[in-house]
Amino acid sequence: MRADGIGTRGTLIAACAALVLTTACTAGSTDEASSVGAAGKPTVRVALGVDASYAPFYLAKERGMFDEAGVHVELVQTEGGPAAAQAVTAGTAQMSANADSTALPLMATSPGLRALGVFQSSDRYLKVVLRDGVDSPRQIRTMASIQGLGLYATHSYLRHHGIDPKAVKIVQSSPPEIPGMLERGSIDGYILFEPWAAKGAAAGGHIAGRIGDFGVRYVQWLLADRSWLKDNEDVAGKIFKVVAEADRLVGEDPTAAAKAANEQVKLPVDQTAKVLPEITFASRGINDSDVAESRKIVDFLLTQKLIKKSPTLDTTLLKGWYEQHAR
């Protein structure tokens, strides 16, 4: 991506080719992973990032809820962003958890991806972090951004404040690197989820807002590949039912969910428990509002020439699937 963050044709596609997985399981093809696992249960690899938004998966894994439902689930940890869905398209996972604006560009180039439903949403979890001394958006000259949701939110933030994104240098990076960039003074701000927002605030920055302040809200989808899903809808439904129940448990007891996240991926308990209420953990099917919001995101991606064509939303977003298979 160019330094201004407005990529040339195919930039996102090239960037998406780099998949970095930290192995929570042994890599293998989709066919291998679909084999029968422990105690005769089917084994399914679910790829996801490492932050508090995935607390339902950590809690379900920690409590053995997937195994109780008859499915052996392996959580594949990725660097976040598009890497989780890329694991599905690469065949190293069968399902993934991704934000809408992160998944949609991949759906444009990998038409086999399917969004099964929503398991959480928020307009509060991603925060604007500005370097100390930068007290107004008008002072911003350089921002860092992750792909997908991060870039969409960054452009929305700047436009909300009457700033042409072309006038700001937007540097693509990864969440762990960005707080250090702020501390060194090489960027003026960024928009990220926890724990990276808090790390920036502790490294010479301050929280200056949340994405809902400028009209952005994301949903997280559970994704699967069409070819795998065709023969495994019952298995996928069982997994989504577990996630839905875990959603409820996270809402009832954030501290227990935070402890499970610490056991699974070493997230700090106190910090995780503090931010979990910023997220709405509730599973549901994809609705007309999701499709309409997806069209807005796709229009942004097309305008910025980050994708060449729109995914076929009526095909990739499975309205009614959750109601049929996961209730």
What would the CATH topology of the largest domain be?
D-Maltodextrin-Binding Protein, domain 2
Which structural class is indicated by helix and strand composition? Answer: alpha/beta
* Strand order, largest beta sheet: 1-3-2-4-11-5
Along the chain, the helix and strand elements come as HEHEHHEHEHEEEHEHEHEEHHHHHHH
Q: What is the tally of beta strands?
A: 11
The biggest sheet, with number of strands, parallel, antiparallel or mixed sense and barrel status, is: 6 strands, mixed
List keywords for this structure.
single chain, 327 residues, alpha/beta, D-Maltodextrin-Binding Protein, domain 2, six-stranded mixed sheet, five-stranded mixed sheet, globular
List the helices and strands and how they pair.
Blueprint: H1 11-15, E1 21-22, H2 30-33, E2 43-48, H3 55-62, H4 65-68, E3 72-78, H5 83-90, E4 95-99, H6 100-109, E5 113-122, E6 127-131, E7 142-145, H7 149-160, E8 169-172, H8 178-184, E9 189-192, H9 196-201, E10 205-210, E11 218-225, H10 226-229, H11 233-252, H12 254-265, H13 269-275, H14 288-303, H15 313-316, H16 321-325
Parallel strand pairs: 2-3, 2-4, 7-8, 7-9
Antiparallel strand pairs: 1-3, 4-11, 5-11, 6-9, 6-10
Helix pairs in contact: 3-11, 3-12, 6-14, 11-12, 12-13
